[in-house]
Design goal:
Helix content: 55-70%
Radius of gyration: 25 Å
Shape: elongated
Number of helices: 5
Number of strands: 0
Strand content: under 5%
Length: 107
Amino acid sequence: MALPIFALILAFIFHTLISNYTTLEISFYIEAVLLLLVSIYFIFFLIYKGFDVKITDSVTKTFSREYLYQYLQKEIKQKKEYTLILISIDNLNDINTLYGLKNGIKF
């Protein structure tokens, strides 16, 4: 999302520099540098904000509890009739130890 915005900003600045090089004032250069700095900050902000939002659990590769809870709350509010199935495996660690992580997931 941020990289196309950054590319458009760079294209706009370079186009203005090429077409109006002799008539540009110092304020354009200051604004261009500030715009580049803000867009770079925005890119890093989005990257680090993306680390905060974790939808899947790294071990099970399923939805995390927080995301699933928020998702179910939203769905229940929108739809009055729903069905929820909960599958619990008590000895998942034993299965993974016995068969290995890749084979344990297949069972």
